[in-house]
Structure formats: C-alpha cells, structure tokens
Amino acid sequence: MDHKDGVLSHLRCAVQGYLSKHMYTSATFWADKAVSLSGESLEDVYYFIQCLLHSGEHHRVVHLLSSGKWRDLGKEHLIFTYLTARAHASCSQWSEVLNLIFLVIEFIYCINT
C-alpha cells in the first residue's frame, strides 16, 4: 500500500466515523477530500452525496447530479438516480421526481423486452 492509499483509507474511515456520530459537516468536508484523492471513485462520490444530503445541501446535490459534472451517473448507476430523486423531493421539485421515476420505469421496461 503506497502513501496515497493509506491517506485515502484514513479519509474514508474519518468520513464513516463522522457519519456515525451525526457530524455531517465534518463528514462532508472529508468526503470531498476523498473524492478528489481517489480520482472521483464511485464509492467516494456516493458517500460525498450522502453527506451532502445529511447536511441539508439538497440543492447542491440536485446541481451535481442533474447538471453538474456527475450528471451522467444516474444513467449508469441506479443508486445515483435515487439520490437525485431524493434531493429533488427534499426541494419539493415534484415534477423532477416524477420525470426520474418515469425514466427508471422506461429503463426497466427496455431491459425486460
């Protein structure tokens, strides 16, 4: 294990520790560092988004997953579609939630045909 992997492992442990203590602002800070250090690995992006949601930064999540640099993650990984819908729901953007639900239904229908 090189130095970068050791630091990344420490950051991930710190994020999990802060999340378990409901210290969401600290978890968000360190999760952001883990995302950068890991080269935006899916696991780290997922925990960063979770931290943002716990911190009440729903509009930021909507931006990152709908029009920001991670907007295509929902097309490739259903969990990110769910997180995007959850953020839209927290912002009372119900039409966006419905659009995402319809996209998922369409996706499932295409897989099964």
Biggest sheet layout: none
| SS element count, helices | 7
Categorize the overall geometry: globular
Helical fraction equals over 70%
Question: Termini separation (Å)?
Answer: 45 Å
Number of strands: 0
Whole-number mean pLDDT: 94
Unreliable segments of 5+ consecutive residues: none
Order of helices and strands: HHHHHHH
Radius of gyration: 15 Å
Q: Structural class given helices, strands, pairing? A: mainly alpha
Strand content: under 5%
Task: Describe it.
The protein has 113 residues and is mostly helical. 26% of the residues are buried. The protein has helices at 3-20, 24-37, 42-54, 58-67, 73-76, 78-90, 94-112. The chain is 81% helix and 0% strand. Helix 1 runs antiparallel to helix 2 (24-37). The N and C termini lie far apart (45 Å).
Provide a brief overview of the structure.
The chain is an all-alpha fold and 113 residues long. It has helices spanning 3-20, 24-37, 42-54, 58-67, 73-76, 78-90, 94-112. The radius of gyration is 15 Å and the shape is globular.
